Amino acid sequence: MATKKTTKVAVPAVGCAEMQQAIIDRLHKGLGTDKDKANNKAWWNATCQAVNELVFEKLTQTHQNHAEKDTRAVNYLSLEFLMGRLLSNNLQNLEVFDVTQEALKGLGKDLYEICDEEPDMALGNGGLGRLAACFIDSLATLGYPAIGYGIHYEHGLFKQEFQDGRQIERPDTWREYGNPWEICRPESIQFVPLYGYVETVYEQGKGSRKVWHAGQKLKGVPWDIPIVGYGAKTVNILRLWESRAHEAFDWDVFNAGGYVDAQTEKSKAETISKVLYPNDSTDAGKELRLIQQYFFCACSVKDILRRFKRANKEEWSLLPEKVAIQLNDTHPTIAIPELMRILIDEEGLEWPEAWEICQNTFAYTNHTLLPEALEKWSVALFEKVLPRHLEIIYEINSQFLTKVVEKKWPGDDAKKSKLSVIEESQPRMVRMANLCVITAYKVNGVAAVHSELVKTDLFPEFHELFPTKLVNVTNGVTPRRWLKACNPGLATLLDESIGDDWVLNLDKLKEILPKATDTAFQKRFMDIKKENKVAMAKIIKEETGVDVSVDAIFDVQIKRLHEYKRQQLNLIHILTLYKRLLEDPDYDMVPRVFLFGAKAAPSYHMAKEIIFALNKIADKVNNDTRINDKLKVVFLPNYRVSLAEHMFPAADVSEQISTAGLEASGTGNMKFSLNGALTIGTMDGANIEMAEEIGAEHMFIFGLSVEEVKALKADGYNPYDYYYKNPELKSVLDWLDSDFFTPSHPGLLSDIKRSLLEWGDEYLCLADYESYVNAHQAIDTLYRDQSAWAEKAILNAGAMGKFNSDRSIEDYATKIWNLKKFPIA
Ligand SMILES: *Cc1c(COP(=O)(O)O)cnc(C)c1O
Fold it and tell me: Which of 351, 430, 443, 476 is close enough to 805 for a disulfide, judged by CB 3.0 to 4.6 Å?
């Protein structure tokens, strides 16, 4: 029955004894310790080093091969890469996980415990950064020549702790004691100018030329992280730039007694790559953030051009053939004027030729329609930090307005001011998204509905001007990390049922669809879910001290905390259930555990209030003996990739409840469904495409559609209408004004109520409340029929083929990059 197929591995099979020897060797020769002295951290380090021995050779081979053939490559520029841990992933992709587990077991060590020693590489905030990480996994797996460029942050996203229910941010020190995966490449250092002024130099017979006299120079030091494709045929790199002072230590200043001055310069320069801005929606508006963006773009563009020149000398017209540069959101937009500046000021090209090259090299991915999240920088700041780039932006803009906009809409100043890269506000601002859309040869949204809204609502005029420029590439997630590695039970069931090549061809999952009604298969599927819940319950107990029953429904919402994602809607539903239970102790409901994980941007007041409220509600509910453990609420601190890897496989219910039209795609939704959770969700982002694949009847779809949201907003939405009409809703909201959850401190949770009433309920929680409560009722009903539930869970997982990042990358490769695979034998 089982149609087991084996995928071929490129790395020579490693035996258990060999792996043992390699790890022991690394303990001795790499770390100067031994088996009896080593702690788990040392074992982790030694195991990583043993893995590197398998990886580095392949890395060199891939690199040589691509360089020799001068293949076209994609350069993925992203300010964020949310990598998580690499050991278990690399072992999986090298297909040596089992043998390593056995090897360590023989040495008295547990591989899972060793893997737990690894700090997450949390160089990202959320979905956008995790997408970049999934994409570079898929690029390597599919054998595409690719390089990821980002910043080597000393501190990744802050570590979240709770103090009396409130979020406290602590620094993340992922590489305090070094990191075995990264290789420093001093031979590829770059220098980055900043500040200063621009001089126009007139040369006899040649006209004028611009010279930027920088006021400061930074040094960019590259750190490479090998990215192992599944099957290890291709090993690409992620290149992360660290900033240092130009002269690490100024001896002249030092000798003249200026030790402190020398140190100040040094630490100022090192600040640039110090921290990841902990905000994924609005820009920090800080000089430092702009310099961060420029620093990493300048280093990356120079690095790209260095490689291009090695093979192509100064044949600049070939650049678009050899190089694709993908901008992950507008954060790396400065790469555009930077490439113009180098081609014109340094390489001596004329404007039209340089512009033609730029227009055929850059593509841009839009991730948001939220107006407050569209990046803008003040012209004054640009002028101070990047004076030459501002001139170039002005010139791009002026040519665009006079040659393109004026031609299409003669005399229409309103159009010009709307499409201009410069916003004529007080102060004047540079609109990064406009610069991207004007320059890029393709602009993509990240789910079908989002890409349509980009055309119709966000950039309708650009769409009229450039009718083939705006396209869609629906997001996806890597099945290696998000199924094979994080859910070994389900992966094994799939291997045995449909063969093990689903890992490389996720469409194969549909072969389990006929088994959805097979009771034996259902039982195995649900047993695996139960085991994952047991493991999760243990983590919950360790982390929070709360006991949860694995017979309860695990209802999970994990994602950044944002009002548009509507954790507060989930909150008022929980209060609704709690109130029902208090009013009627016999209230009949399947026990439910509501699990949350979310970080809030440190400056986002309302997000932090929601975390506080959920923690206070959790305290009360979890200790209320009257409700017979029918309800538990747990907010796990410090949501991150490695925690997510335990939560997705343990979830019964996936909360994807954003206001329709606001979640560009979502990728958490895909990870849940892939692991057999049922979705309660709005028709938003990729939920819509998931409903197409799964069948909406196998999900719990509720709430207003994109069109209905628009209509309601246009009509003038009034949350009080819902408040007064629904007594249960009213009583729940009024509860927030009492001191029930914050004894002797009434009003501590009132801001949540205010945001939903007085402040207008921007995200329409009250409008969707009733429909949401009903959908939850349907979940309760279905769960009582375990076989019916199992059937739907299997239908969900089996329908996820489309949502894997290999498919996304194939879409980018054909629709945008025109990229060819270059598999290494
Ligand atoms: C997948 C993922 C996200 C994105 O979740 P959404 O629900 O799509 O917002 C954020 N953070 C982590 C750690 C993830 O793994």
Answer: 476
